[in-house]
Amino acid sequence: MTDDVADQVIKAEKDRIQCLLDVDRDTYDRLHATEYRLCNPTGTVWTKAEYLELLTTGRVAYRELGLTGDIDAIVGTDVVVLHYRCVIELTVDGADIPKHDAWHTDVYTNADGTWRCAWSQATGILDLPPAAP
C-alpha cells in the first residue's frame, strides 16, 4: 500500500511539474490544494492564486524544469513528503534566471481521496568557488 501511494503521488508531482511548464490551469487547480504555498529560492512565499497569476501573465515563465534524479517519498496516512533535485531555467518579471540546480521538498495531503500539493519549498544550489589553498 505504501509503495502504491508513493507511486501515485510521485506521478502527481511529475504531472504538476509539466503543468507549470505548460501553464495548464485545469491541472494546476486539480493538483494544488486551496491552502497551497510555494517558498521560492529567494524566500518569497506565494499562495496558490498568486503563483497561478504569475504563471498565466508570464511574469514567471519556466523554460526548463526537469528532474535530475529520482523522487524520494516519505508516506504517512494522509501526508506524503517528496524530495528531489531538478534543474530550473526561467524568467521572472522579464529577468532571465540562469539554469541552475535546486532541491525541492513538496508536501501532499489527501482530502477526499485526492492527493494535492499543499506546500512547496525550492532551494537553489549555488556553485561556490573552490576553497582557497
From TrEMBL:
Gene3D superfamilies: 3.10.450.50. SUPFAM superfamilies: NTF2-like. Signal peptide: none annotated. It comes from the Bacteria. Residues 10-117 form the DUF4440 domain. InterPro entries: DUF4440, NTF2-like_dom_sf. This is DUF4440 domain-containing protein. It comes from Amycolatopsis thailandensis. The lineage of its organism: Bacteria, Bacillati, Actinomycetota, Actinomycetes, Pseudonocardiales.
